[in-house]
Write a structure and sequence with these properties.
The complex is a heterodimer of chains A (about 425) and B (about 400). Chain A has about 425 residues and is of the alpha+beta class. Chain A is built from 13 helices and eight strands. In chain A, β5 and β6 form a beta hairpin. In chain A, α10 packs antiparallel against α13. Chain B contains 18 helices and two strands. In chain B, α7 crosses α17. Chain B starts with 6 loop residues before the first helix and ends with a helix. Classes of the chains: A alpha+beta (about 425), B mainly alpha (about 400). Chains A and B meet through α2, α4, α5, α6 and α7 of A and α1, β1, α5, α6 and α8 of B.
Chain lengths: ~425, ~400
Amino acid sequence: MTDRSAPDAPVSATPADVAPPAAPTGRGPLARGEARLAWGLLLPTILIVSGVVILPLLAIFWISVKPVQLSDLRAPELVLREDLRRIDAPGDAGTWRFRLRNSSPDRELRDVSLTDVLPPGLALGDLPEPCAVEAGRLSCAFGDVPGGWRETLEIPATATDAFVLGLRVQDSAPATTASASSVLTDGTFTLANFARIFDGREFLDVLYATAFYTVVGTVGAIAMGLFAALLLDKSFRGQGLLRGLYLFPYVAPVIAVAFAWIILFDPFSGSANALLIRMGVTTEAINFFGERPLALIMVTVFEIWRYFPLSFLFILARMQSIPQDMYEAADMDGASPFQQFAWLSLPQLLGILSVLFLLRFIWTFNKFDDIFLLTGGSAGTRTLTVNVYEQAFAISNIGAGAAVAVVIFACLLAFSALFFRFISREEGL
Amino acid sequence: MSVLRRGDVAAALLGAAWMAVLAVTVAVALSFATGAACRPVLWLALLIGAAAGPVLLRGTGFWPSFAVGLPIGLLTVLGLGPVAPGPEVGPIARTIVGVVVAVAAWAALAPTLRGLAPGPNDRHPFEASVIRFLTGFGYIFFTAIVAIPFWVMLMTSFKTRAEQVANPLDFGIDLSKGRDLFRSYEELFTQFDFGLYLLNSFGISVVTVLVTLLFAIPGAYAVARLRFKGQAAFSRGILLIYMVPMIVLALPIYIAFSVTGLRNTYVGILLIYPVTTIPVALYMLQGYFRGLPAEVEEAGLMDGLSRLAVIWKITLPLSLPALASVSLYVFMIAWNEFLLAFMLLDDPSKFTLTRGIAALNSSEIPRQHLMAGSVIATVPIMALFLGLERFMTKGLAAGSVKG
């Protein structure tokens, strides 16, 4: 290998000759060992995360094009009861009875059959149509049966002398076969789920609620967080206490604070309404979480209230790392407090504010619990995430729920692309 | 702008703004404290504040203060002040209200206007005054919005439905009821198995923390320290997974668990909870590991320790504070988790606290119980949070945009 910097390198050198000396490409044995170790350390995480995140994501795409109802999750089964009628002692003539039914009212079972060993001491009469006895075993084949199918097999039987008193035919459980095609795994596909969720007016409502909730919630929480951070960006006694207090809404379980809000704003016994009525602001009780468009505003306010602590924490952390001498210098130059905020603090905070905005935006977009607990998605508060639950469980249409989830995922991918374009330029997060 | 900065104009405006804020604050506080009606009269508050500002601007000694405080107090007693007590409020109470309003007005206005001259001002004293007003307003505002919902939660858990409906304004707790005050809590623990739910929640949260750490520590170390192909893609992938909404995953997980019979089992819950927390734990830890000096670890390698021994003997002891933050944060996520518990647990003997509270949300169960349950779920996490605030705040700040 020729030294590239050699002054007398021949002009006619082939490209191979002028190639730089072999740089450490990371493929040496040591590096390979390191990479192996790294993958070894990461493997458990990769496995469990792909099991619980990637697989469900793929499943969502699959389900979104299947006509699946909530009730389809329980596959149809063959239900079988067996008993012996009017046979108690040797010489009795009665029936050996099987009652079969398809547990699903509307889906078929295929290749239904049953086999059972002949009970000792029982002489069988004429066998019904689908049955035959072979080598001491009774076997009956029913073929494909429709949903809601019921069948009672009565096999005339006489007890012989070998009959054992107290014989229970149930003790030898019959073997049954039945195969059901699950909607989840068969080859039927449909676009009806998407057609259904994109259906006109309702979808626009959902989209509007999502957009309003996400944008106003994000901006509001960040603005409030900035205000709170400015308040606490000086040290005084009790500052730690106040900081702890202001983090309460975020740290408390969402279900606890959501119900506290519901009780506070209850139209009949809520303190907020009592206060407003006694102050003369309103004459009759306001149903805060039940009226359009107030409900949407209220859930957004709740979102702002619950998540301003996070923005506040991030902004405060960034503020405290701004060097103090910048402000001293600005003071010397005669900058007023507002000028210092506008020309010093804000530019310094711009990075964290934009990161916060993108992250909070995505997280607010994803939020489900809060609205679900406060309004359940009624009164114009149904966002996309609430719509997943609504479609899948309230309307019992799992397929449509999955279709909404696919829409969410598509939005999310778009946001993430934006996010990574942006965040790669930001350090710190 | 320079008109605004004239001392009298600024003082009048700030006085009016302060008085309006105070009127609402005092009225709300008194209403809640006494249960009696007390309403702010905004236009009077603005007028009185605008008059009081310029007076206090000229001095905050005894006489100017007296000249401001006395009329405000008297007007309030007469029902013509910034705060109008309801007709049922007696003369003594009215006097107290008057004194409170007058003192509050003085205590707020005097410091705010400090440094402001009656004539023209330059930007500094003017803006300093505005900032003092905004600061005072901010403290009142934030403290109110944070404290009121929590007080409602606590208070409702001590009140029967009848007491609640009788006067929703009354924020007091009737201490004379003694033991009866805690009836809801007793019933929750004796009849609703909340002791068990508390244990369930605690157990599940602790196991989640342990499992999360078990997976996240090696993973974070690999991403932070070891060089391998796809390292950058991996650390982004972590963040990406962190952004997948739970409800999207919950649906197929619900289906899969229904089919495999994992619904209603701790195993099922413990399979999922760590996965929701591993990405964030990994993300927080790798940030911290990156900040540790590599030289210490290299010295360990030189001395013949294997990588795993280096992690165990050098890296982990150095990152105890980070481990504490991550553990606390993961504990909090698991403790507060609602959606998965709600969807996957149906059997009351396996409920976590949040699922137990959700079960209390029915028209047959008094709201007192619902709020008592909420208090039971909130208090432990709050205590943990306040006790270990230093770690918690750090943990929150390090990677917890999730929520």
